[in-house]
Amino acid sequence: MREHIRRAADRVDAATPASRDRAVDALRALAILGVVLGHWLVTALVPDGGGTLYTASPLQHMPWLAPISWAFQTLAVFFLVGGQVATRGYASARARGTSYGAWLRARLARLFRPVAALLTLWTVIAGGLLLSGTPYDTVHTLTKLALSPLWFLLVFAALTAATPLVSRLSPLWPLAVVLHVDLFRFGLGGAPSWLGWVNLAAGWLVPYTLGAAWARGELEGRRAGWVLFAGGAAATAGLILWAGYPASMVGVPGAAVSNLNPPTLAAVTFGLAQCGLALLLRDRLRRTMARPVVWAAVALVNLSAMTIFLWHQTAMMATTATALAAGPLPGLHTVPDGLPWVAARLAWLPLFAVGLAVCWAAFRVHEQGPRRTANRRPSRVIRRQDRNHVVLAGSRRST
After folding, report:
1. What is the spatial distance between Cα 276 and Cα 223, in angstroms, rounded to a whole number?
2. What are phi and psi of 88, to 5 degrees?
3. 44: which strand partners?
4. Dist. CA 21–CA 394, nearest whole Å
5. Is residue 392 within 8 Å of 303, Cβ to Cβ?
6. Can you tell me the distance from the alpha carbon of 8 to that of 2, in angstroms, rounded to the nearest whole number?
7. How far apart (Å, rounded) are the C-alpha atoms in residues 24 and 26?
């Protein structure tokens, strides 16, 4: 078995173009897995006395666990990689004579094909739950969790569409927008509540434009990484300690202010630190990705990135709902108010992963396309898989 895995990994490694920057794929995989683990660790579904499910978080009851969110809130890295890939891809498409419309349609189709399956299934599930008499609040909670990844896709799609306009934009401009929006929201007071949502685009545009600068070759030295990492970390610490921003980099139910909903200046400066760290790790990641087995694992995650991202909440909820028949179980249905809950939740993570594997097997076809026929030569299959990987993961060769 081990030898079979090694041979398969060697074939994937040999089929990968030498020009491919494997650090990009590694960072994308880490960002996706960070989001998945973060949600699984800080999201709980707890039944109240009347049988209605509501969301709870250990960060509500144990705010000193906020550093967990620093490790697993990795969206800035995803936007960094997305900006790098989109900028390179658009430049490559223009060099080949591909129109902007054709390039954009191809990219958005790869983003939204898997979404149709998620929306269809959850429309059926929500309708069935309501018809069966499930409390509306429970249906709302479940549907909101299942569809929560879609906000990210909408923002990412909008920034992708704007790539020709923002690919040479300095990150300082959207950063200044976030700064002024927060100044009006929190410093001066009296700003309309909708003003904060300006940061939904401006906040994630900061790492996206950093990715574009990376694609232009402007962030190749380690100095840029250290400046971003040190400056972002210092600014974030100052905002938390002296400006009253929450320490958690994810939303906490019941909190007056969320760093993500919409993004705050602290979330953006924290993202700058993450982007700096990602840039500092590039060379080490490239060396690590030279190992065929590691590279094959990263390639597999990238090949299924959208499926993993879209279905990880559904996998967690399916496990939670299935286990309800056994009664309230620690770490799954109980209030997350102590370290025993944390220990129990860690024990549930493998079952969440099994649920996600089931979702992956059922729905990956919407991302990867139909399975190849078995009578094709192995070498052709490998090359085809690599082409799909290149397209879906958004490499330099993607359009």
Report:
1. 9
2. -65, -45
3. 56
4. 11
5. yes
6. 10
7. 5
Helices (H), the chain: 2-15, 22-42, 58-61, 67-72, 75-95, 100-131, 136-147, 149-161, 163-166, 172-182, 198-215, 222-242, 265-280, 282-288, 292-303, 305-323, 339-363, 365-368, 378-393
Distance separating alpha carbons of residues 306 and 153, to the nearest angstrom:
10
Can you read off the two tokens belonging to residue 389?
A: 């990987």
Tell me whether the omega of the peptide bond preceding residue 262 falls within 30 degrees of 0, making it cis: yes
Residue pLDDT tens, the chain, 399 long: 788 888 889 899 899 998 899 999 999 999 999 999 999 999 999 888 777 888 999 999 999 999 989 999 999 999 999 999 999 999 999 999 999 999 999 888 888 889 999 999 999 999 999 999 989 999 999 999 999 989 889 999 999 999 999 999 999 999 999 999 999 988 877 678 788 899 999 999 999 999 999 999 999 889 999 999 999 999 999 999 999 999 999 999 888 899 998 999 999 999 999 999 999 999 999 999 999 999 999 999 999 999 999 999 999 999 998 887 777 889 998 999 999 999 999 999 999 999 999 999 999 988 877 665 444 444 443 343 343 343 333 333 343
If you ran DSSP here, which 8-state letter would residue 187 be given?
I
Report the b/e string of 186-206 with b at 16+ CB within 10 A.
Answer: beeeeeeeeebebbbbbbbbb
How far apart CA 31 and CA 23 sit, in angstroms, is 12
Q: What distance separates the 2 farthest-apart alpha carbons in the chain?
A: 68
| Residues forming a β-bridge with 260 | 263
* Contact call for residues 334 and 320 (beta carbons, < 8 A): no
3-state secondary structure of 46: strand
Q: Residue for token digits 């960072």?
A: 27
The CA distance from 363 to 365, in Å, is 5
Token representation of residue 355: 């649920």
Residue 251 to residues 139, 232, 384, Cα–Cα distance (Å): 21, 20, 41
Phi, psi of 46 (to 5 degrees): -120, 130
Buried b or exposed e, range 327-352, using 16+ CB within 10 angstroms: eeeebbbbebeeeebeebbeebeebb
